[in-house]
Amino acid sequence: MGKIPVALQLYSVRRDLASDFEGTLRQVKDMGYEGVEFAGLFDRSVERVKQLLDDLGLIPVSAHVPFEEMMSDPDGVLDCYAELGCSYVAIPYMTEEHRPGAPGFGEVIESIKKLGQVARDKGLTLLYHNHDFEFVKVNGVYGLDLLYSSVSPELLQTQIDTCWVNVAGVDPVEYIKNYSGRAPVVHLKDFVMKGKEKPAKMYQLIGMESDDDTQSSDESFGFRPVGYGVQDIPAILKAAEDAGARWLVVEQDEPGPGKTAMESVKMSIDYLRSLK
Q: 221 CB contacts (<8 Å, ≥6 apart)?
């Protein structure tokens, strides 16, 4: 598996956390994950969560925090995750009006610069977590590349989600290489997809753009544990190591057929630990 430690994006087990927050984190640690990436604190105080992580020996690597939430109170929101002990905070998703190609994308870039400076002042590093929609061309350049070329590395680093890069038709290995030295946290996510056509309601699969937080019945696409889909995981791991990644983060938005979320994330870490 190499020398890069592995964390779990806790969105993967969000329903388990909602019913048993402490017990779920304990199981994540027992599986072999060294750290976690948050997607909310489930109404727990920062102090309580920090103490729990300390007791379990889990490292709070990063947190996914909605763009709008950070913009509404940059100091307050980022103070929370700095106090928790995170090294990174990531913009996890952009609604349509904020995406590359939208009229307001220029303003979004300026807002990200401001967030990046606030984060830096608090000892955090701002990341951007991509989906496939950032690979629309803007003046002949991928929107994601435009974002990274417009904001200095001191204010914004990458969090390359290897699944969505692949779904966009781009080689995740080569894309990680393109951002060598600017890819401290790489998301490992595996999937299957029939043909080259993406589902019409793709983002219902991740609980977005839908009132129903369940996986779509469209069987043309589905998430899988790391190592159980189409991704060339050994090549991705090598690229991440060569690019200087400090953390790998497993994420599976929905469990695969016949598996629970906890079973799925255990399969992922077991697979990664099996690699020599």
A: 167, 191, 192, 193, 194, 198, 199, 202, 205
Residue 146: Cβ within 10 Å count: 20
What is the tens place of the pLDDT at every residue in 165-208?
A: 999 999 999 999 999 999 999 999 999 998 766 666 556 555 55
- Closest of 127, 147, 135 to residue 247, by C-alpha: 127
Tell me if 124 sits within 8 A of 78, measured CB to CB.
yes
| DSSP 8-state code for residue 134 | G
Q: What is the DSSP string of 149-206?
A: HHS-TTT-EEE-BHHHHHHTT--HHHHHHHTTTS-SEEEE-EEEESSSPPPTTGGGGG
Of 201, 209, 208, the closest CA to residue 253 belongs to 208
How far is 29 from 162, CA to CA, in rounded Å? 24
Domain residue extents for the chain? 6-274
- Which pair of structure tokens corresponds to residue 116? 């990046």
Beta strands 137-138 and 141-142: pairing type?
antiparallel
Per-residue model confidence as pLDDT tens digits over 83-92: 999 999 999 9
Neighbours of 125 (CB within 10 A): 21
For domain 6-274, say whether CATH 3.20.20.150 is its number: yes
